[in-house]
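Re: the pair you flagged

First of the two:
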Amino acid sequence: MKTTDTEILICPGFKGAPEDHWQTRWEKNLSAARRVPMGDWHKPVFEDWKANLISEVDKAEKPVVLVGHSLGCQVIVQAAPEFKKPVIGAFMVAPPDVANPDIRPRHLLTFGPAPTDPLPFPSIVIASRNDDFCSFETAGDMANAWGSLLLDAGESGHINAESGHGPWPEGLMIFSKFMNQLKAPEEFGRNERN
């Protein structure tokens, strides 16, 4: 599916996505992309972030593809059952373990535990083997529960600008391949849920 036939909603995590983050770069370079105003980036409130994502999806005029990083991934999974407009895929990078009592800051625990129901749309989880916010094994368990394809990013940290993933061309190539495999709903309006 072409990116121009979709609305690509960028869902950053805790502290947002600064200028050199791959999500911000993708947002600037993909004409169909826009950032979801999740709420307070530095003191995230789960209910606000979830409600804001649902609102943005439900305003969409084209099929939606979600691009989440870190805490944004957990919001996607938590909000998925409540979307009224068609979401045709989710590309999720470095989901944190929001059930780990050692996670810092501790208020990130309010975003967990991660749901264990399969997502109602195709999805990919890209996880690192040395992410301080989630073990690779836990990311694999989440991906398995969600019915997501798990991709091993090796030792890539939290897959953000701090870990050297500013432009992240490899991620963009994976995203392009993912987009090519997505199918459009037969008719956008007819597939809306009541």
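Second of the two:
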Amino acid sequence: MKILHVIASLAPRFGGPSKACFEMARAVAARGHEVSVFSTNMDGPDDLDVPTTEPQLRDGVTLRTFQVSRPRFWKPSWPMARALKQAIPKADVVHVHSLYLFHSLVAGILCAWSDTPYLVRPHGTLDPYLYRRHRLRKWVMELLFQNRVLKHAAAIHYTSEEEMRLAAPYVREAPGVVVPNGIDLVDYEAPPPAGTFRKMFPEIGERRIVLFLGRINFKKGLDILADAFVRLAAGRNDVHLVIAGPDDEGLGDKVKRTLNRGGVLSHTTFTGMLEGADKLAALNESALFVLPSYSENFGIAVVEAMACGLPVLISDRVNIWREVEDSGAGRVTPPDSTAFASAMDELLDDPMARRHMGEQGRRLVEERYRWDRIGDRLAAVYADIQAGRIPGGT
């Protein structure tokens, strides 16, 4: 099969959606299919330093990157639109990532014109918390194109059962299919030597690390985490908060002000984005991973933490929370600072519980979130769509 993915950007700063798009493309390409990804070179306010004139081959996937145009918030690219006009009629299935953006409009129209089947991955935008955000602007786009793109999709691709449940009131007539994101476990099996991360950030000392790994973004609940850590550190001096990720919206200063008012900014480190060995070092030297999101359609950082045997504390708005709770891989609370502080305090004082959670988390990843298994499921979904069948990826 010829599979074409269309996404606004593959820049690492955009977190899980960009990472997952390429990795699912790679997983299916490894099964002998011809897979391409079309995206722009947008990297926040800057442009990625990647070729925009010639395709690149990486891990069996053909990558075509196009110059982003204005207005940048909509991530348009007229060169990409022209290339899609040529590429979509030649594809067997098109996989469109995200809603309300230029590429979803163009891909939906071109798929309809060429009678090419497509599926849409909403990236959590149909979660009620995000669906209500900027409602007027989204309502206009729904009337103009987004409702039709959803209605005529062969399937809507969700990455968790919870995401599909939350989206139910807002979808059109397209069937839903659940195929999770994943990781390659081999990438997590050789961490740097113990102490590497603490040497990078010596202010941590011997304190136990509470790790947030992700974008500094409004939906991630960093206001909750800051308040919770102030409460936690008021009663103990053995903890250090590490916030690792790019600052998408300038929210980092607000979080720092909260921590400073609470007198715990000196027990906090903002590392910026961590990748590769640096990220592995952080995951393997932490005592607890935390993610108090208001909305999270999957949470790939949670899976990465579990792959490293790190116990996780997440909110019940992270859409794999049921899987985490049912497997015993972590603790789940509402997105509330008092509840989060209490749970952090209890877990830090219970090393046996943390060890058990870490073991269960690693087992959960091995059973459900490995790309070598998920690639088969994705390929089966594409085959169903190509054949005109309702996909059965659950």
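The radius of gyration is 21 Å.

-B.
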